[in-house]
Batch of 2 targets.
Target 1
Amino acid sequence: MTSPVLNLAALPRVPEHLRPPVDPRELRPRIVHFGLGAFHRAHQARYTENAAYRSGEPWGIVAVAPRSAGTAAELRAQDCLYSLTELHPADTVTRVSGAIVEALGMRPGAARLDALLAAPDVSVLTLTITEKGYHRRADTGALDTAAPAVAADLAAADTAALTTVVGRIAAGLAARMRAGGAPVTVVSCDNMAANGAALGRVVRDFVAAAPWPDRQAVLDWMAASVAFPSTILDRIVPATTEADRQAARAALGVHDALPVVGEPYRQWVLEDSFAGPRPPWELDGALFVPDVVPYQLTKLRLLNGCHSALAYLGAAAGRTTVADAMAAGWGERLVRSLCAEIAPTLPAGGPDPAAYAEDLVQRFVNPGIRHLLRQIGSDGSLKIPERWLDALRTLRAASAATPVLELALAAWANATRPAADGGQLFGTTDPAAAALRRCWQEGTGPEDTVRRLLHTLGATDLAADPGLVTAVAARLPALRAGRVEI
Ligand code: CS2
């Protein structure tokens, strides 16, 4: 028998304790979010819904899918309802979420989006578009105006033609200024150090390069009325599987085409500098602090740093998921020793690194979570500079030994070897895949290849460090043979 589809009409069939705490019909569109992926639905949407419930303030989210409009259409077919299942080690807890009040494809929904971005009632924009969505130059962090998508957006005749989120936000802010200029806060929710400043920079660079006669007025208004706080978000959210879909249906009694799953743990730390009204996310445990840097670097370098190391070492050793890699003899040792190596680079004021490492071990071994190493290993050329390279620079400048980071870098290098079909060896994707492949094709030997790979990451200084290059190259043969020696 087929179950009815999850939507407002079917909600009464869902067990009462699994229904959303808020009625989405009573919320107003006050946040516009770009990036309709599972992470947003499992993280910011949950905080927003709980904050709306606890405060009685009607904060609803308009979720925008930047590329494919398919997910937005599927979500609309469910009146924007979907379920979130928390994967505890021994059981699961499912609940329907009602935080999203509208779902749009960025291009087909352009006219509605124009209105929302200019509306004073919308005072927060949030983004989960991954590192590559920012189109930053690897060397300077400036907007890469030569990237074809950015160049096309700079020349676009109207907002329905825009394909980059950076261009869409810049055009939206310009329209907002022209419509009266209510203050607004734009919140990057992606895994980058100083993500607020990074976002502010590329949006300002876009405005400065746009052919608009009033672009200087837009920049001046932005300086006074638009905030770009830095944030750090944490929750492990693996891609949803067919088994997850079936489990959600069994729990709900209705069919949810868009369920998401995540670990029970979640964290959100935000720089307390908003330009206008915001949801009281602190009512659901978010932390507003004057300076997020200690939290941000701890999370990026320890959690995400260990994730990437597990991804590439695990791939070399034939493992599939984080929990599988942790079950290998070297998994826990890797996490503890990488955290210990990186800890001296972390500023004071964040979590205690040793306790953080122990928590990571517990989170990573959770057998309920099927987090694919392939998912984490993708886009490595953009993730690794954030996760490993600044720590490596600090340590090498202090003449500290860096054996675990060298092993991790070697594992990443090993994973960039071209596969027989021309793709990446372990099924990962990377926007720099062609350039990485050339490093192997044109490298005159292991050390030369490692140097070229580091150049591709924009790390010319590290490529010029012979001790590092030799140590990384020396690790390659064992990894190639599938051995992780730590
Ligand atoms: C992961 C992150 O895919 C990845 O690169 O390291 O998505 C990680 O799961 C989250 O940042 C956890 O908060």
Target 2
Amino acid sequence: MLDTLRRIVQEVNSAPDLYAALNLMVRRVRDAMGTEVCSIYLLNNDKQRYVLMASEGLKAEAIGRASLGVSEGLIGQVGQREEPINLEDAFNHPKFLYLAETGEDPFHAFLGVPVMHQGEVLGVLVVQQRENRRFDQSEEAFLVTISAQLSAVVAHARATGGLNAETPPGTEPPPAIFDGLPGAQGAAIGTAMLIYPAAELASVPDRGADNIEAEVALLDAALVKARAEIRALAERASRSLGPEEQALFEVYLRMLDRHALAGEVVTKIREGNWAQGALRMVIDEHVRNFELMDDSYLRERAADVRDLGRRVLAHLQTDKRRQREYHQDTVLLGEEITTAMLMEVPREYIVGIATSRGSRNSHMAIVARSMGIPTVVGAEGLPLKQLDGREVIVDGFRGRLIANANAELKSQFAQIIREEKNLLAGLEKLRDLPAQTIDGKRIEVMVNTGLMTDISRSLERGAEGVGLYRTEIPFMVQDRFPSEQEQRAIYHEQLKAFAPHSVTMRTLDVGGDKVLPYFPIHEENPFLGWRGIRLTLDHPEIFMVQIRAMLKASEGLNNLRIMLPMVTSVFEVEEAQHLIHRAWLEVRDEGVDVPLPPVGVMIEVPAAVYQARAIAQRVDFLSIGTNDLTQYLLAVDRNNRQVAALYNSWHPAVLHAIMHVIEHAHAEGKPVSVCGEMAGDPGSALMLMAMGVDTLSMNASHLLKVKSAIRRMRITQARKLLYEVLAMDNGEVIASYIELQLEKAGLGDLLNRRRST
Ligand code: PEP
Ligand code: MG
């Protein structure tokens, strides 16, 4: 059964479009279950009807025509109840609705299961049989399993299908929306350009051939080189391999023959594809065929075909390094875009970025935030090749990419983009003014930094220091741990740029989703694993070098503060303090005259919330990392799109935890800052101020908005609002309530546009 399932899912997954996928699905399910009918009805949201989209066994004429309202018939019943309905004789069911055009008269036995995706009913999958009989438990379980597996395919194919849908003249295709996660805030409208790593077949986009003969010639030249390469390999192999393995090279050479694979590629070029795309299509098809074979030896041959394809592609790509022309408004698209790939494109052309993989803490996303490029990451299932060259909208506020946008949606986004630009231009005058409410409450506003470019951006916006310098960022761009001297130089730049304001340097916070290419960590549960202080306490040689570099870098400036990430227990604080003290004694012995800097702890784990007082007694300040604190309190992975809707920093548990920390730190006379994303959101920044937070530290791009919100509020007003929301028990309601109250207070222009589209 498992094998059948795997094969069906694999085949359906590689179908070229929605209709092909649905047709394959019903055919294969009918065969696997040995039933007479298998059909799939998909929900048309606009019409609120289930439309028969594919069927094996019902009349072909009914496909695309027969439909039922959402509460009609057994199909509507399955959709409404969101559970299977299994009937010996459907005709006897009170909800049964006879659709004459489908020809279902003779079919009595009925089993329908909902096709659900992310809590939403997409359609209903049905099998029917002539005789009166009840489908047994295992049949029902099979259909439920297959439906669950295929729902993602249907959801994806439906979104993608809209891209290529033939629509009648005068009507617009529906917008195709792909959900991901916000990587960098902002919105952009532009032309998608797929960027992909070299010699990777799967990344080659579909493109038309400008000149068919030229593409064929390119292919021929690449084939000549690939053959020469394989002969050379065979020659080398003859010295070390047996004759059986050597035979493989003969097979390779034969496959490259014009009568075999190469001939098929030429045919695809002649159909109008560029050589690289034609090669990918042919290789994909052969790989698929091999992978479907029952014989495991033959199945493994798929890898050879793939390898051969890669070799030819490498020659195609070096022979024709296409000079890429960038649109003025390029949206970079890619499966995973590395910082290096991003850097290859001149900044002035890039208006947005969207990737189908990657996390908010990937180096590229950090760089994009720092460069102010609206970015969406992790939009799984983004049909990259089909989007290449199309007009798209990047919604970095909500974390989604939109294609096929209609005029209304486009003008809505154009307005958002205009408003953002005007807003930021209008806020520049606040640069040198304090973050102070109308009635005189003053709060410090600082920045989070990591890259060198953050320095100038922060100073331009009037930052009063650095509340979080993420030291792992300079570590990410190296190919080994940076030396003490190298670190010292990097840290000195930061400290010097902001002096006499303080710079809070966080010790190395890697692990979780922050990976160093030269220090891979393999864990089942990285977020609950070897992260932050846990890792550096296990590697004092890394920790000590870092602290020594920080201390030396601060010589003569004396504006360094050191902060410890991912602390769970007081012993970690004590051990780290002990090491910091030792490093200080060492550098003093070396003649570096620096005071022992203030040391603080990040509160980002629930355990640390309940230890806030004990921790505060031992250190000089606390800083709340609301990004991780929200993740750990709510048990919601901050990079998992599937549960992104549950990630809500307005959750009462988060608000009360923050209150608890502030109360206990202040009871010990220690200041508290917030350096997670909450500090940069005008609404939550106001609530944090009302709670009594002493410092807010955020990405430089949010600084002026937050300052503006504070300067347009009264602390009495903010406190009143805080007490109202603290009495509420629902995070969603709190978020809406805050938004409404800020609109009423005339701060609507500052709200992040998460809910605007
Ligand atoms: C946080 O967790 O809130 C935080 C500021 O740290 P990071 O986002 O770097 O994990
Ligand atoms: Mg954190």
